[in-house]
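Bug report

Summary: structure tokens for Iron complex outermembrane recepter protein differ between web form and batch submission.
Environment: batch mode, default settings.
Steps: 1) Submit the sequence below via batch. 2) Compare with the web form result.

Sequence submitted:
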Amino acid sequence: MKNFVLALAALLLSLSAWAQSSLSGKVIDSQTGEPLEGASIWAEKVGRGTISDRNGDFTLSKLPDGSVDLRISFLGFETHRQTFSIPFSGSLEIKLNSKDFLSEEFIVSATRASESTPTTFKTIGKEDIAQRNLGQDIPILLNFTPSVVTHSDAGAGVGYTGMRIRGTDQTRINATVNGIPLNDAESHGIFFVNMPDFASSVDNVQIQRGVGTSTNGAATFGASLNFQTDTHKEEAYAQVDNSFGSFNTWKHTVKAGTGLLNNRFAFDARLSKINSDGYVDRAYSDLKSYFLSGGYFGKNHVIKVNVFSGKEQTYQSWWGLPESKLEDDRTWNYYTYDNETDNYQQDHYQMIYTGKIGSNWKTNLALHYTYGRGYYEQYREDDDFASYGLPPVTINGETIESTDIIRRRWLDNDFYGFVGSVNYVSDNGAWDVVLGGGANRYDGDHFGEIIWARIAGGTQIRDRYYDNNAVKDDRNIYAKVTYELKEGLNLFGDLQVRGIDYSFYGVNDDQRVVDGQENYTFFNPKFGVSYEKGSRTYYASYAVANREPTRSDFTDNPITEVPRPERLNNIEAGVRARSGNFSYNANFYYMDYKDQLILTGQINDVGAYIRENVTSSYRAGIELDGAYQLSPSWTFGGNIAFSQNKIAEFTEYIDDYSTDEFQQEAITYKDSDIAFSPNVVGSAMIEFKPVKSLSVNWMSKYVGQQFLDNTSNDGRALDAFFTNDLRISYTAQPRYFKNLEINFLINNIFNEMYEPNGYTFSYYVPGNVDKDLITENYYYPQAGTNFLLGLSMRF
């Protein structure tokens, strides 16, 4: 650490020593006069470069006196070259002319909201993502966006991570990559651990809260995440990112691209490795990934191929921390077997076409294939042979019915299909029509292996003790229409029909035969209006979403009692505005659920907990989000959400062991809070830039009390917490670098001890004549004060 600090100090001193003259200016669109953020400015032969900021401003420092040839480039614009004499005095304004070619933005436009769309959304650009991308996963990078609560199993933001938006977990958040579904078809979950360092290949992500607009894949039941991967660069580049930090966390990323070759072709590549010991004992992560992209970029047609893959091994920390250990042993891990690990690899293949037909029509088509396979390994002490479908073992006349076993539970699945859309815009711009949809198939094998047993009996290594298969076909078609009734007033309609055929058969992990087939057809309409007046856009909308149960809802419930699909009616209304240095969004939402599926404590015939439908529940709230640039040096921003999240009535079932015969006691609750749905979530951010190359950011996060179940019981709750992070960024343009950036991030600077996630269960113990209820709470503690330090070099 000492040597690193000395080397860093020497580097900064050398950068200062090179200072000679500088050249400052602004890059703008020649037609609109709008500033261009992210334009590349490069001094040829000198070997120095920089990029323009959000106001289009740039400063190219440490230039030698004399003649300097400058090259300015930006995606979608013609490259501009100009020679200057240094030192240069006066105000420099560089105007770039737009280039007539098809934008890659259309790849995701069919599933995105625009400024005139009457729904609630926020788009996060590449620069904002990169500022925190020092090794932690995507949910953690989005922690300061409105209504978001994040958590990490290992406590340090690496490995298994998750997020909730408006209290909705990842199984109810729709995610797409370039319009292609990302959610697991059966569990509906999003597993970012299978896509390590994916953030380094993301150009932007749009978060739509509520139902939003029609998209592909599982229905949006609280929010959607719409990722667009990196677009091609005009100029060739190479980039090396390295970071290290607490808990022996390391991230190494190498990126390179050819730029636009022959004005038509471009190729990009990334290779990443992330390691962390985790905050929780033994909760390490070993993550590897790559991203490859290449394409043809013509005037009217774009053909692009993406291939990306992630491979992860994580030591399990799925079992939470008992409440009794919260004060004295927060890093305790239930697991002790040295190979209690999760192992998975997921490969993604995408071929994307987008084209322009005349002046009114655009079309987009994507073919995709995802191959996933992996297992988690477990050591099981004194497990019954019957749990594995095995007979007892007799040795020397003694019948042995249990033994120690090591098992692996496997997933081996294929997911493939297509998505596409056609967009028509009338000559006068009054009509904007999108017709789209897709068809996808999931084919997944679930099986378990015994790889070791202390007493093996008649078993052989890799004997499968369960084996079942599932096939799910998911297809949808939608039509979206935006019509400008008069200047500034837009009417919006969005109609989607989604069909699902799901079949499964074989033996489940609890030795039950699970054969079944379910079919659904859902109609999901959406209507709204928006009105643009000056710098403000007012909007209101009503949307419907229907969602099928997950795999476990089918396999854990008796087939004759399959849960009903869930339905959501969503109202959104708000205003968004941008005027000068001030921008804000304010909105109200009401999300009315019918037949929402929740855990109630009810068990099936083999003792597994199942989810049940509750007739009526809702979420209602107000969200405020804004930013103000007080001066070139100071910027203030923040967001806050106030909400009520209620279930009209549900029945809890409690295991009762107090009598000779096991039974469950039922308790009915009315107007109780939905689990993991805090009434207040807020963030605040202050940025201070004393000089152009140095940025200091203070970021705060508050999350109110959350209940671990749906009983509103204070004894089964997560305490409110308030955390603060500090980020310091320094940029420079030393010789032969386009950009050099140092980021220092201190997370949880005041060492807040907090737990954003957990679980609970209650029971009556044997012989308890007074029937005193025993409740056990388990938590996922997050790390105290910790740091990450990163160095990014762009050539």
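Above is the batch result. After comparison, the two runs are identical; trailing whitespace caused the diff. The first helix runs from residue 2 to 17. The first strand starts at residue 21 and ends at 29.
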